[in-house]
Structures are given as C-alpha cells and as structure tokens.
Design goal:
single chain, two-stranded antiparallel ribbon, transmembrane, transport
Amino acid sequence: MAPGAYTMRGNPPGILLLRKISGKDWSLTTYRYVVLLITFIAYTAYHASRKPNSIVKSVLDPQPKNHNVLNPLPMGDLFVKRDLVGSDLNRLKNKGWAPFNGEDGTWKLGEIDVAFLACYSLGMYVAGHLGDTLDLRLFLTTGMIGSGIFVGLFGMGYFWNIHMFWFYLSMQMVAGLFQATGWPSVVAVIGNWFGKRKRGLIMGIWNAHTSVGNITGSLLAASVLDYGWGWSFIVPGAFIILAGIIVYLFLPAYPEDVGFPCPNGSAANVVAVHNDVEAQTRKGAMDEGEENSVAQCVSANRKSVGLLQACLIPGVIPFAFCLFFAKLVAYTFLYWLPFYLSQTAIGGEYMSVKSAGNFSTLFDVGGIVGGILAGYLSDKLRARATTAASFMLVH
C-alpha cells in the first residue's frame, strides 16, 4: 500500500448498532473511556484464564499432608487441623490425577508452566509484528477466543478421563501462543488513543487489570473446584471467550475507524474535527464517504520496529531488565503461591485448597494499590525511572 493511502477497517458492529439506535455519535472522551474499559476487561480475562493452574495444583498432586476439606474462605475456617497416619497416608497416595500424582508430579506441573511461558514469550515477539499489520480488534478477538478454547480443553481432560502428560503439555503450549496476542494488542490500542499527558496515572489505573484478572481467576477457579477440577479451567475459559466477543463488538482499535484523527495531531485539531463531525451528524448531512475523509492519518503509516531498533531506543534495555525481575517474582506467586500455602504447615495446621486460592489474592490486592500509587508518583515527580527503581528496591 502506498504511503498516504487509507484503509477503513470499519466500525465495530456493536458501536454501529448503538449509533443507529441513539442517532448520534459519542464524543472523543467517551470513546477513550470505552477503549480503557474494554481493554481492561480484555486483559483481565487473559490473566484470569492463566490462574487456574495454580489453584488446581494441590488437587492434581496432593501430598500426604494435603487433605481435602470443605471450609474455604470466606465461608468457613481458614486453617484445618488434621493428623494423617496409617490408612490416611495410603489413601491419599492414590488421590490426585495421573500423571501428576506420582513422585515426579510437582516436576511435571512445573514443566507445564515452563512450556506455557516459553511459548508465550516466543509468541509475544511474533504477535508484536502481526499486530502492526493486522486489524488489532480482530487479532485480539482471535487470540482471546483461541485462548479460551485451549484453556477449556485442558479442563476437559478431567471429563474425558485423560491421563497422558503430552495432552496437558500441548494444550498449555498452544494456549501460551494464543495468550501472547494480549499484551502487544492492548498496549497498541491504548497507544492509538492516548497521548503522554498523565500517562503514568492512566497506565497505573489501567494496568490494575493484571491483578484484577489474577483475583478474578482465583475466585472463579476456586468457586467451582468442588464440582471437579475441570470446571476450574472451563469457567475462566468461557470468561475470556465472552470478553473476546465484547472486544469484537465494541472495541474501536484505531481513532480513524470511528471518524477521529490519530493522536499525532494537536488536541485542537482533534476537537475541531470532532465538532465538525457532530455538526454534520445533527444536520443529517454526513454520509459514509464524508466520515471516512475525516481521518487525518492512516494505519498504513504505522511502521513496526525491529528488535535491534527497539533495543537502541534509550531506556528500553534497563526497563526490560526491570520488568524481567518484576515478572520473575510475579509469576512465581501467580503459579505457586496457592500450592505453597496449602502444602505448608502454619502452627501445625494447613489451609484448604480453596482457602489457599482465595487467600493468595491478597498479593494482587497489593498489586492494584502499588500500581496506581507508582503511576501517580511518576506523574507528580516527573521521574519515571526513579519511581520504577524505588519500587523495585522495595519489591
């Protein structure tokens, strides 16, 4: 496509329907709020679908000390006393789910996590390039529905009575590839709609989707655990598919798709163009061709940046290392905190599996508060690097 050419991907069908019903278009501010909300829901669903692994680990691989109890938070006792001897030990050795309930069960669960993250990291690089060339709304929708299907298939192993390790490993690997579509896409959409002003606070609030997703995934997975561990995957999988449908119907990935200029222009131009659009709409004088001409920039001019070029951008490498070590801790807690809590004696007592899952959400509650605080401070002090370094040191 030649530079300057314009390709209209089209309005999301849900927005077209609402516009037809109301007879008028939304303002630029309203569209930005919609974009923030929908991308927040989208990435919340991504993280919610990653959380079931950690919740069901103690069910798939129960240690002799891990006895199933039915007193989960917040409905019952936090700790449950139990003394396991003789027949109890022999009975619990036969519990769990093959192939994860053997002596190498914990190792196999770890291998599944590593396989997921390996495919996720490789997929992120590919997804970033694809997101620059494809319609972000459709790309994100495809990734979310694909993620939901393969997360759900992992849970179907319970109902299909599958005990082959390769099945669960492959489901997680494919799910990891689909999950890689999430972060590059939602960040690109936010970048299309927002400038730099107060971006720290905006990103701090918006980035709470990670912690909200972990909390949501924990509560969803734990709430249906009594009905069989397969439901702990199927319910979050259905949630991300539903969120993907919302993205398809209502997410305007590019401002020009709904008649606004790209944010590269001045704020005055944005307001002026939109006021003109609203005036034409009220008069009934706008047709599809006129609306298309409103766009002041084209997505064809958005060029992807190669890996080497990205590394040469000042600050990219230091912040990449900062994020690497932060994620190292975050994913350790995400995948293993509930398992650790349910398998570790505290005063001679153990948490139930569901209580451990619910209790682990406190880590993410702190993440919400900390992210918003860090964003506010980075805007207030205008020292993003210093703020990030300070939080990393405390972390």
